[in-house]
Design a protein that fits this description.
171 residues, mainly alpha, 3-stranded antiparallel sheet, 8 helices, 64% helix
Length: 171
């Protein structure tokens, strides 16, 4: 318990001068705010061209599902599809080819400019936080108090796992 508390205090910058502690607290709060913003982002829609999906070659029932789930604009040749999980799963199951499913999937998960800006700020805040606490990166910070201890050890574990599975799977 004592070591756990010590690690928590160190993550909060107990070893730093007061002005640095305040900076760490601000960065932690800012990171939490940005993380919450990402998680609470409203469901957005992605615009997909009908021709890219070979929409007109889909069965009429598949076209009806698309029209029901998304906002179909035949005149302009696109569909606005909500990016929530149930809509994605429904639409992915009715597309006949893997290339069409891949296209829809990548279009639906493409971040908006606002999402990308929030993610970029979060990355910068996390990097600064890690540096303030004496770590080379956020990955070093987050792994330093865990069993892995470093990103390098995590990568080594992944490499070992991949190599052991490769022999069985014959990739």
């Amino acid at each position: 318990v004592g070591m756990s508390l010590l690690h928590e205090f160190e993550r909060d910058g107990i070893h730093l001068p007061q002005d640095k502690k305040e900076q760490v607290k601000y960065l932690q709060t800012r990171a939490q705010t940005l993380e919450a913003q990402i998680m609470a982002a409203p469901t957005k829609t992605s615009r997909v061209k009908l021709e890219d999906l070979n929409f007109h070659s889909l069965s009429s029932s598949a076209q009806s599902v698309f029209a029901h789930v998304g906002r179909l604009d035949r005149l302009r040749g696109h569909i606005d599809v909500p990016t929530d999980a149930s809509a994605i799963n429904t639409l992915l199951t009715i597309l006949p080819t893997s290339s069409e499913r891949k296209l829809l999937f990548t279009q639906m998960y493409k971040p908006s400019q606002q999402d990308a800006a929030v993610l970029e700020e979060l990355i910068a805040v996390r990097r600064t936080l890690a540096n303030e606490l004496g770590h080379a990166s956020y990955a070093h910070l987050t792994t330093s108090y865990k069993m892995a201890k470093s990103p390098e050890r995590v990568q080594s574990f992944i490499d070992t796992l991949r190599d052991s599975v490769r022999d069985v799977v014959k990739v």
